[in-house]
Specification:
Oligomer: single chain
Structural class: alpha/beta
Helix content: 25-40%
Distance between the termini: 40 Å
Order of helices and strands: HEHEHEEHEHEHH
Low-confidence stretches: none
Strand content: 5-15%
Radius of gyration: 18 Å
């Protein structure tokens, strides 16, 4: 493994792999900075656990941090959003003490990797209040996810007014993931993408986790269509990997019949705490 205590295996072509996914995120950031595009997409990026001095959680180089640093050359403020089931700890840590980057992570919290992302972890020094953590538990549904994502996002856009957004779309928050424990459909997950795009801010869209591979492909194909305002049929067209999508060969997923352990009361408490945190910020910081 890379490092003594990590879960990041060494494999043939590792260095070239890290160059390609990190270079693609940097290239997307450069294109946004130049005004060459409104939205840049790199589904191979979004490796949010890597730190400056260590690989972590299958993440070797933190392409997100490097892309945000590139965006900060042009934009006074950058918003990072993370809808992976795991906390975006590497990105939060990198910008924990600055008010120029706000991190907004929705994740499973409690006896779950990487163990960070408590609601009271809000930043330090100049960055106090600029780390926004939404700790959730198992069974998260589309409706419950939307009820926390949209009001908090609205408040962030009002008080922080970012010049650019980086959106990490880890697909392990989908129903049926081998490691994740949320119960989101493709439509629920992609609604975060659609809503973020609706603000009309230059946006870098990245991949991330996802351990039921056929559903990762479904998710990012559908979210590409959302970014392009293009409708896709539910029937998956014949292709070299067609048998992976058995037995229904459909694009969309049906959430499992299981309990959402996030109660109305717990969600309301989180929502109020986060809106209070954001209301306490003294307007958008400038450089």
């Amino acid at each position: 493994n890379v490092g003594e205590y990590t879960d990041c295996p060494v494999f043939d072509g590792l260095y070239e792999f890290t160059q390609l996914y990190t270079g693609a995120s940097l290239d997307g950031a450069v294109k946004l900075n130049r005004g060459d595009c409104d939205v840049a997409v790199n589904w191979s990026g979004g490796l949010h656990h890597a730190k400056k001095s260590e690989a972590s959680g299958f993440c070797y180089i933190n392409d997100i941090v490097l892309a945000i640093l590139e965006l900060l050359k042009v934009h006074a403020r950058v918003l990072y959003i993370d809808i992976d089931v795991h906390h975006g700890d590497g990105v939060e840590e990198a910008f924990y003490c600055t008010d120029r980057v706000m991190t907004f992570s929705l994740h499973k919290y409690g006896d779950f990797f990487p163990g960070t992302g408590h609601i009271k972890d809000t930043g330090a020094k100049e960055g106090t209040g600029y780390s926004v953590n939404v700790p959730l538990t198992s069974g998260m549904t589309d409706d419950a996810y939307e009820k926390i994502f949209k009001p908090v996002m609205d408040k962030i856009m009002e008080v922080f007014r970012p010049g650019a957004i980086v959106l990490q779309c880890g697909a392990d928050s989908l129903t049926g993931d081998r490691l994740g424990c949320f119960n989101l459909s493709l439509k629920g997950h992609a609604e975060c993408v659609r809503y973020t795009k609706s603000f009309g801010v230059p946006t870098l869209v990245l991949g991330g986790g996802g351990y039921t591979i056929r559903n990762v492909a479904r998710c990012w194909a559908y979210e590409t269509s959302v970014l392009l305002d293009t409708k896709l049929p539910d029937e998956i067209p014949y292709n070299d990997y067609y048998e992976y999508y058995a037995p229904d060969f459909k694009l969309h997923l049906t959430p499992e019949q299981r309990e959402n352990l996030n109660t109305e009361a717990s969600m309301e408490s989180v929502r109020i705490d986060l809106l209070t945190q954001l209301s306490g910020l003294r307007g958008a910081p400038s450089v």
